[in-house]
Structure prediction request, 220 residues.
Amino acid sequence: MSELNQLLFNFNHKQNFNYNDFYVSKSNFFAFKLIEEWPKWEKNILNIYGESFSGKSHLSNIFLQKNKALKLNNKDINSDIISKIKIHQNIIIDDLDDKINEEILYSIINTIDQDNKYLILNSKICLNKINFNLKDLSSRSKNFLFAKIDKPDDELIFALILKNFSDRQVKIEKKIIDFIIKRIDRSYRKIHEFIYKIDQLSLKKKKSIDFNIIKEVLGE
Prediction:
């Protein structure tokens, strides 16, 4: 995986979800380790959970690049989905929440178990904490393999800031990142929003990112 001094500024404007763009820290190590160890899992259903922008989709894309899989979003779950799942060995459902059709999700889980398939479920909260109305689904959800992505530590925040700017093809000095780390909210979403505001202000002022722009966004 990329060390901080190996992260290059040659990415496209869109977000990069490649293997070498994922920075492993203690916050996400267990989830990453499980993706790497597939198919040697204790159970065939894995729930990766953590707040928005924490890297769940990135991990799923790493899995997708290494192994053939059908990737779905919460909105793709409908009555026709079982027939699609039947022809794939590995299934990924991204952005799962409590608004999903519980009967269909339960059918998906049964199909995964009966056909010895593998399922990755990405969600913001741990699925065994959701109060499903369907008792059988609630019971089954207690028996998944769980991997939590914790709040980012300093190293991961550094890597996230560096990656987010490099995704925008923007270079930023290490001392500015260090300055940001000491003042920013330790939330993946807040980091993402903060970087967006810096980028927009820099473009508006037609200036490169410096301490003055950072301080203005911080409200200092």
